[in-house]
Amino acid sequence: MILHRGIAALRVLNARGLRLSPVPLAWRNLLSDRRRLARSSAGIGFAALLMMVELGFRNGYIESMLLVMRRLDGDIMLVSSQKYQFERVAPFSRRQLYEASGVRGVASARPLYLERTASIWRNPQNGRHFAVLTFAFDPDQPVLLIPEVQAMLPELRQQDTILMDRRARSVLGDVAATTDGELSGKHIKVAGTFWLGPNFFNDGNIVMSDRNFFKLLGGSGRDRTDLPDVEVGVVKVQPGFAVAEVQRALRAAMPPNVAVLTKQQLIDQEASLHAKLSPVGPIFTAGALVGFAVGILISYQILFSELSDQLAQYATLKAMGYGNGYLVGVVLRQAAFYAFAGYLPAWALCIGLFRYISDIMVGPMQLTLALTAQTLLLTLAMCMFAALLALRRVITADPAEVF
Amino acid sequence: MSTLLAWRILLHEKGRNALAVAGIFIAILMIFLQLGFYASVPRAGMLVYNQLAFDIMLTSSDYVFQEQSYDFPRQRLDQALSIPDVANVSPMYQGEAQWLNTTDRLRRDVFVMGFRLEDDSVSVPDIRRQRSLLRRNDTVLVDSMTLPMYGPQVRGHVVEIADRAVEIAGTYLLGTGFLGLGAVVTSDLNFVRIFPRRSLDNVNLGLVTLKDGSDPGLAATRLRSLLPPDTRVFTRAELDAYEETFWRKRTSTGLVFGFGVIVSIVVGMVILYQTLATQIIRHLPQYATFKAIGYTDGFLQRVVLSLALITAGIAFVPALATAVMAYDKLRTLARLPIEMTPARVAVVLVIALTMSGATALLAVSKVRRVDPADLF
Q1: Which residues of chain A have pLDDT under 50?
Q2: Contact B250 A88 (CB under 8 A)
Q3: What are the E-state strand segments in chain B?
Q4: CB < 8 Å to B252, chain A
């Protein structure tokens, strides 16, 4: 029955298509001059590539700030309501975390500790010191979804043992070759490495157990003798409970100094902070906007000269009795074809380009599905917009002028 | 004559040429913006240093950048005084602490800088003027670029920095650059009150001024041989170069905006070429007629060249004006020292003219091939 209806609908569409366009004119226009096709799609492809790269830079910069957050193994995150930036320390009391684990629907509430200014790594090769970001958790309640970290939990339990980020900036020294190191003036063993990466504000990451964190970097309180306060409470929701429902219950149970956010909310909040408030975010955004403006300019030029070349043909069509609506349809379809013809090679090229620049760029350059969809839409929008600008020529074409 | 003709051609088709000017306007604006980012982002490391009086700066040998400067013994400053070239030394203290806005109880990280009030080491006018206010215990001056989320930053307002109540004695305009979202300055004595674990005996930066006529390079060499390896010696020029390289690498600005500058130039050339080429093709009969009358290729070349240069020249003016406005907007948004310098105006003008000149020469080949006989 459904199939039957579908076929009927297709027939109607087909009949309409036939009535509107007995010849696939836009398609034929595109193919009539292969050299021009190559030239024009190269131009539009260039504009698309430009947008991909500029947006890629911007996303890469922001993404580098979210690396750890994305790897937190939980549905809901408890953070201090003072926290405005993930890497800036603003802990809350561990007692409140225990309270959270009693809330209905919460499977577990596990602590993550963070230290940014006191964890000073000594480059084992040249002896210079650099601040690194240290994350710590209880190896019996792991919170980081990093495969190498998960595989090395037994090593983490040993005293004075850490795992080191092997994607850290090279100023930290040859991390992979290091087995004995120095952190904040104390001797430590490097049991292994994991793959994470630096960001704009920090050169590399260290992971250790909560016990070592307490021992090496101290606890909370005036004399730093209490167990350390919690930086993030990583909450897992019991199967059968909705995350939003548990989030509401936690909000009701927690005092106002603890913010209850879903993992995505925490990530979105951080991304928007870096896009808007950090020194370079607005500049990267400006770069992406400029890319779009240039794209419109290029595609307008291409479509305009294309239409100018084919003006006689369009005028002839008009003289034969085709309406403006039909011609607009042809031009828009042609613009869409161009968008795709330019986009596909640009996309393929971009994969290689991103892989190449990722190594020298501050953040990870990824051609994600979202970026693909976003830039494809922008390319389409840009070509359509340019086509509409250029259309005036076709609409005002006077058949009498052609001959 | 050729310029006049070019001018006439421009005026003849106002609408079409306005479009060309608009295209080149965008290309030039892009070059301005990308060059601005390229040059300014790494300059932010010098934002504060540019306002400090020194010929040579002493830092810890671990110095990474201003926020991660580490400390070194103050004796090094006294040792430096033993060199005859050295006129004066002055310590700077800096650290990061939590700022508590007492009205809404929100905590933010703030960068605190302390200097000796009797030294003339800070040249920000607002700070010099209000220096004496810092003689009172527990007072600070707040950078007015500090974000509103730090709460009210008016004179007399009391906040807590590192759990100690301090009074805002005034504000100054400098900028926070890469130091974070908020910054304050205070006296050296107030600094150690805020940071009880720190002592005046360990300084973060040592500002050394030299006697008139002495050579900073030579003095730096002497200091290096005098001071132990825990101290690093930078002349002003060396520090400038160090900071620039550090931030260029860290922010990948070389890659990102260098790419942007090249792309803008290419796009500008393509737009200009397209416009010139269409214009020439449409006026081919006229050019052919000129040739038939006896004008030389050289003359026609000059016409096209003038056409290109005039178009670029006209587009340059609004592009410069818009860029100045955009710099202004970005300066407040990004809180980075993005400024229009005469050198940059000159560089972009040269780029714009070269770009249009080169394009004109490319496009002119069409004119050269024109055969007057084809006309009829």
Answers
A1: 1-3, 6, 9-10, 12-20
A2: no
A3: 56-60, 72-73, 86-101, 106-115, 139-143, 158-161, 164-172, 183-187, 202-203, 205-210, 231-235
A4: 57, 360-362
Report d(CA B59, CA A7) in Å as an integer: 79
- ipTM for the complex? 0.73
Cα distances from A38 to residues A338, A382, B48, B228, B302, in angstroms, run 10, 19, 52, 66, 33
Residues B243-269 have a mean pLDDT of: 80
Question: CB contact, 8 Å: B335 with chain A?
Answer: yes
CB contact under 8 A, B108 and A54: no
Structure tokens belonging to residue A351: 């994969």
Note whether A214 contacts B: Cβ–Cβ < 8 A. Answer: no
Q: Can you give the pLDDT at residue B374?
A: 67
Scan for tokens 């030389």, then name that residue.
B296
Average pLDDT, chain A: 84
Q: Search chain A and give the residue with CA nearest B24.
A: A297
**Of B276, B273, B274, B270, which is closest to residue B6 (Cα–Cα)?**
B276
Single-letter residue type at B212: D
Query: Which has more confidence, B137 or B294?
Result: B137
- Residue B284 to chain A, least CA–CA distance (Å): 16
Single pTM value for the model: 0.78
Say if B252 is an interface residue toward chain A (CB within 8 Å).
yes
**Which residues of chain B make contact with A280, given a CB cutoff of 8 A?**
41, 251, 334, 336
Q: Which residue from B96, B250, B255 is facing A360, i.e. has the nearest CB?
A: B255
**pLDDT tens figures, A188-199:** 999 999 988 888
Query: DSSP of A3-63, one letter per residue?
Result: HHHHHHHHHHHHHHHHHH-SS-HHHHHHHH-HHHHHHHHHHHHHHHHHHHHHHHHHHHHHH
Given an 8 Å threshold on Cβ–Cβ distance, is A361 in contact with B255? yes
Residue with token string 């080949």: B365
